[in-house]
Amino acid sequence: MTGERADQRNQQAQNFFNKGSAAFERGNFDIAIDLLMQCVSLSPGFSRARKLLRATQIAKFRKEKKSGLTIKLDDVKAAMMRVKIAGLLKAGKTESALIECEKLLTLNPLHSQNVEMAVEAAEAADHPEAALFTVEAAYENNPDDMELLRRVADYYMTVGDYTKARDAYVKLNAYLPNDQTIFKQLKDAEARVTMAAGWEEAAGKKDAYRDLIADKDQAKKLDMQAKAVVAGADAEALIEEARARIVQEPNNLNYYRALARLLSQNKRFDEAVEVLEAARKINAADPELDRAVTSTRISAFEARIDALKEAGDAEGAAEMETEMNQFIFDDLSARVQRYPNDLRLRYELGMQYFMYEHYDDAIGQFQLSQRSPKERIESLYYLAMCFAHKGQRDMAIMQLETANDQLPIMDDLKKKVVFALGKLAEEAGDIEKAFGYYKDVYGADIGFEDISARMERIYKLRQAQQG
């Protein structure tokens, strides 16, 4: 009887999926979402249905033109839903939490906190593919977010899609060429793709993978590539091989990235930049190549600064550091001009302006970068700091309160926001309000900045006022 009921549920789920797919094709997103929600409720492991549901939620979200008031109401509703989901997870009701997360993502499938909550629920419910679809969809709509890409790559490995994992790690490696963890993960993914047929049999046997490779030279190359940093003769061999690949396939950008990475590892930064610049001639509109060039140039500056310090030339090192900082600013400004819709770049340029106390320019950048779900809260925080430095206390408080409303959990970012609200209240002489903010931070983290000293001072002021 149990088997018959399971078959019936599966058939019902399939029917909902078929109808939901048809509704999606017709552009009836609300109907499609309702049908697909019923499908995944009946069959939580129905991967195709959940993936289509995520695509439908995003399509609906992008199609809607919501007013500012509607967006604010949705944000409040979403915050309440996240609190409810957190309670379900704490109670161990993971499947119920997963269903509620789908409702949450229907409100806004790209909001960073909604994404985080959905991923947490999917992991708790042991549905890694559901987590993958969530971060994958978020990344596809924020293709410059390397943190999202890193999570996508890790989930590809978890679900066994090694080819996609390898491709994702290639992009990450180009963006962060000195990150040895990513490099190791890339080599692991490449090995799994290469030896997919026999890897599982070889697992646990020392050097057993060699028996799966007929060409012993290939085994040697894998050994070299698997090292965290390849140097000396091994590096020269791999560099020459990478150059030969470029000659054979001059339009394959991955070969340029791989060569640049090897050169950077061996501190041949100028050569690495030349390789990346050659790649940019093939695709001048690739923001990842731009980032790789920038990262490599900064690494070159840092190497020169270290060399000058080791030689005892403190003045020369200081001059070089000034030159590096100017390069970073000029490069960011130029990239913002090339990619005006890249909100991450807007945020980074805003931080540069903030650091150099050009607050009006910083405000302009942060007002744009707050549109990105990933950068929204940090942008609001630094907007507030800019307004505070300009003496516009009310504007600062407005930004901080908006940020605070969108942070349901007292994490490090919320502590920073609430602490700033407390400081502004204290500066304005509103001791009770300052005490309320400080108390929230103090209760969560007694060691946060100088919260203990501030609590002690505010407590004494309150006592003096009361008596």
Summarize the structure in words.
This protein is mainly alpha-helical and 467 residues long. Among the domains are: 1-141, Serine Threonine Protein Phosphatase 5, Tetratricopeptide repeat (Alpha Horseshoe); 361-466, Tetratricopeptide repeat domain (Serine Threonine Protein Phosphatase 5, Tetratricopeptide repeat), CATH 1.25.40. Helices cover 78% and strands 0% of the residues. The protein has 24 helices and no strands. The protein is flat and about 60 Å long.
What percent of residues adopt helix (DSSP H or I)? Answer: over 70%
**Beta strand count:** 0
Mean pLDDT over the residues: 83
Question: What radius of gyration results from the CA coordinates?
Answer: 26 Å
By CATH, the architecture of the domain at 1-141 is named Alpha Horseshoe
Contiguous low-pLDDT stretches (5 residues minimum) are 197-206, 208-231
Q: Say what the CATH topology of the domain at 1-141 is.
A: Serine Threonine Protein Phosphatase 5, Tetratricopeptide repeat
Q: What is the general shape?
A: flat
- Total of helices: 24
Beta-strand fraction estimate: under 5%
Termini, distance in Å? 75 Å
Tell me about the biggest sheet? none
Multimeric status of the protein: single chain
Strand-and-helix sequence, N→C? HHHHHHHHHHHHHHHHHHHHHHHH
What structural class is derived from the secondary structure elements?
A: mainly alpha
- CATH level 1 class label of the domain at 1-141: Mainly Alpha
